[in-house]
Amino acid sequence: MGTGKPALLADPEITIALATLPEWSRDGDAITRTVEAPSFLDGIELVRKVAHAAEEADHHPDIDIRWRTVRFTLSTHSAGGLTALDTAMAHHIDTILA
């Protein structure tokens, strides 16, 4: 391990990971998912649940809230791009949204 930084995923690994995350798309060095909540408060509750999971995992998405539209963006800033931490958190967010 050495540096302790998570390893960046290669492009083929990102393609494979996104195949298992159909609601997510790549945006440069990040992956994103946008959700339309039934109401503003439902969107806030969704964010609260994701925030709790992110704290437990110690891996935090960027979250943008625009009324009922919530956008999650994942990237491992310390590694400078996408890592397995991001795809794992994306799967976790998908479970919360299910």
Key words describing this protein structure:
single chain; 98 residues; alpha+beta; 3 helices; 42% helix; globular
Overview of this protein structure:
This is Putative pterin-4-alpha-carbinolamine dehydratase. Its EC number is 4.2.1.96. Belongs to the pterin-4-alpha-carbinolamine dehydratase family. It is a single chain. The chain has 98 residues and is α+β, with helices and mostly antiparallel strands. It has helices spanning 11-19, 40-57, 84-97, and strands spanning 25-27, 30-36, 62-66, 69-74. The mean pLDDT is 94. The protein is globular. A 4-stranded antiparallel sheet has the order 1-2-4-3, with helices on one face. 20% of the residues are buried. A hairpin with a 2-residue loop joins strand 3 and strand 4. It is 42% helix and 21% strand. Helix 2 (40-57) packs antiparallel against helix 3. It has a single domain (11-97), classed as Transcriptional coactivator/pterin dehydratase (Gyrase A, domain 2, 2-Layer Sandwich), CATH 3.30.1360.20.
Sum this structure up briefly:
This protein has helices at residues 11-19, 40-57, 84-97, and strands spanning 25-27, 30-36, 62-66, 69-74. It has 98 residues and is of the alpha+beta class. It has one domain (11-97): Gyrase A, domain 2.
